[in-house]
């Protein structure tokens, strides 16, 4: 149950649509539900504004299915499942009850069970990549942000090796409320974008590059040492973390 659902419930009690005993029963489900192998944090949406997300890697399809079904039954409209491989997604979809709905995004390795929310952030989140090889991590960020209620603009393959490609999108960059920049190799794109933008830039180093890139470490260090101000950095290949943070920024000041 998130802030909006709790507010809606309290208003229904105030108007007489829902009885006090029924409301108390719904709230009694909190703060967590114990499935034996997992304890679901049903009040995370109420505390943080974003409900619990399921990390799929290392979990069996049966475990993911049980967690997803329990979260949906508790009133969560959409359940985001990250790092979910194609085979596990197929097994999950086959085992879910009809009507729950599951949309799988193979490049992002993300599934969304339930209903994808409409955008309700204060602006657009721009996602820019240095190259096409960064796209899987970029899609993880994009689908995460979309599942959390944001409008996304994708600018793919606009790296510094051909700077004119990026400069052809200055309108989108300057109109953004948050920008996520993903790059491997030397990771220079984040500094360049931050030098053009007046909004927060979230840099994501990717594990793309030749030997001395050290699987993203070179890009990570470059981004941490950005000469442009306003750049924050998440971990290597952490598209989910970037999309989540961008959503939080894009919803600051938005009515709950």
UniProtKB/TrEMBL annotation:
Recorded superkingdom: Bacteria
InterPro entries reported for this sequence: P2CMN_synthase_LarB (IPR039476), PurE_dom (IPR000031)
Domain PurE: 123-255
SUPFAM superfamilies listed in its UniProt record: N5-CAIR mutase (phosphoribosylaminoimidazole carboxylase, PurE)
Biological process terms in GO annotation: 'de novo' IMP biosynthetic process
One Pfam family of this chain: AIRC
One MF annotation (Gene Ontology) recorded for this entry: hydrolase activity
Stated name of the protein: Nickel pincer cofactor biosynthesis protein LarB
